[in-house]
Amino acid sequence: MYFYIWSFFIYSFLGWCVEVIYATVNSRKFVNRGFLNGAVCPIYGFGVVIIIACLTPLKDNIIFAYIGSVLLISSLELITGWLLEKSFHQKWWDYSDMKFNINGYACLKFSLMWGLACLLILNIIDPIIYKMITLIPVTIGNIFLGMFFILIIIDVIVTIQSVINLNKVLKQLNEIALKMRRFSEEFGEKISSGSISFLEKGEELKNVLNEGRSYTSRVVEEKVEIMDQRLEKAKEQVYELEIKRKELLNKGIFGVKRLVQAFPRMKSNYYKELMEELKEKISKY
Predict the structure, then answer these.
(1) How far is CA 142 from the centre of its chain?
(2) What is residue 193's predicted lDDT score, i.e. its pLDDT?
(3) pLDDT exceeding 70 applies to what percent of the chain?
(4) Which sequence ranges form a coiled-coil region, renumbered to this chain (predicted)?
(5) pLDDT tens for residues 100-147?
(6) Which residue range(s) make up the domain with 203?
(7) Which long-range contacts (CB under 8 A, 24 or more apart) does 233-238 make?
(8) How far apart are CA 123 and CA 104, in angstroms?
(9) What is the DSSP letter of 57?
(10) Do residues 271 and 170 lie in contact, with contact meaning Cβ atoms separated by under 8 Å?
(11) Cβ(14)–Cβ(121) below 8 Å
(12) Mean pLDDT, all residues of the chain
């Protein structure tokens, strides 16, 4: 178990390095990849530990080791993606645009690539890592593992709070959008009903016009003044809602910028359009 725990942390770090290199090559800038804030990608650590535990006896049989690696890593991606989506209502990665994918959680292309990577790990990298771990005195090793556990637990708590804040911001933005739409519809109905009422009195106004233009002018001016007041009040309410909306967007950017950059394919189950707007705004910073 001691070696498995060390392997988890080491491969989580190495996996983070791979993700950073991959993102840097594609975006030409540094991106802190991974669900957590620290320099670790736990899914890599879990994946490699599972591969080592299950397939080390088969590592000399390349075909079985390769097939086993593809199946195990694909299953891990499926389970992890599903759990993250159900827990946080976000789809953190999406392979839906790639051929032979399973609900966007896993795809054949990357599964085959991970199969090759696992063969490399089983036969070349892991024996080296194992020897490096044996060079660390067990007492010192346990101290370091304890420190790593504390750091990763803190990181998990901070990251989960960031995701919760993201969902709160998206919910509040959605509520503002609904208020603005509802207000627009109600104001439009008032204008429409007022216009209809005004037209219905057209004949009456024509009669009044024949009797005296001053009275007609006064009635029209009163109607226009009422409409102006309503319009001004509507502008103020819309302006206040827009200010609050911008504040929430800025708050969302501050809290989840790293997560959105780390998972550019992330999608929200409930607020898809708002998530895309937030991602677009973050990309400009």
Answers:
(1) 35
(2) 55
(3) 68
(4) 217-251
(5) 888 888 999 889 999 999 999 999 999 999 999 999 899 999 998 999
(6) 166-283
(7) 234/183, 234/187, 237/183, 238/180, 238/183
(8) 30
(9) G
(10) yes
(11) no
(12) 77
